[in-house]
Design brief:
This protein is an alpha+beta fold. The chain has a single domain (about 10-95), classed as SH3 type barrels, CATH 2.30.30. It is about 30% helix and about 30% strand. The protein is built from 3 helices and 5 strands; from the N terminus they run βββαββαα. The chain has helices at about 50-55, 85-90, 100-120; strands at about 10-15, 20-25, 30-40, 70-75, 75-80. It has a 5-stranded antiparallel beta sheet, with helices on one face. The longest helix is centred in the C-terminal third of the chain and has 21 residues, at about 100-120. It starts with 7 loop residues before the first strand and ends with a helix.
């Protein structure tokens, strides 16, 4: 859970989308978030407001890539405080990999398993 000094928030920007993370600083329309994930697609919440209050009821259907250590967002148009329940829910969404990379990782795992079976005989 985020400390009182760095509240966990959802930020909507004018042109680069929606992020969730710890609010490090704000200067007008510029926000710096730490440990931030882009909320590329969400399911299980009717709106960002509901996501900020309740979290997602369908975490496996959400598309939230890996968190970045810090991001500076300009042209911020909305900042939503996130409840502890919703923060836990958002952070529990599995990291979404690109489909091509995910398929390569699956192929590597299959190859490793096959090699392991071959050499264990």
């Amino acid at each position: 859970m985020a400390s009182a000094q760095k509240p966990y928030v959802i930020v909507r920007t004018y042109s680069v989308g929606v992020f969730a993370g710890n609010l490090k600083s704000r200067d007008g329309k510029e926000v710096v978030l730490t440990d931030a994930r882009r909320l590329w697609y969400w399911a299980g919440a009717a709106s960002l407001s509901q996501l900020a209050v309740s979290g997602t009821s369908r975490p496996n259907d959400c598309k939230f890539p890996v968190a970045v250590p810090a991001v500076t967002l300009t042209e911020v148009i909305e900042i939503l405080d996130v409840t502890p329940e919703a923060e836990t829910s958002i952070k529990a969404v599995p990291i979404r990999l690109r489909r091509r990379l995910r398929l390569r990782l699956l192929d590597c795992n299959r190859s490793a398993a096959s090699a392991s079976r071959h050499f264990s005989r």
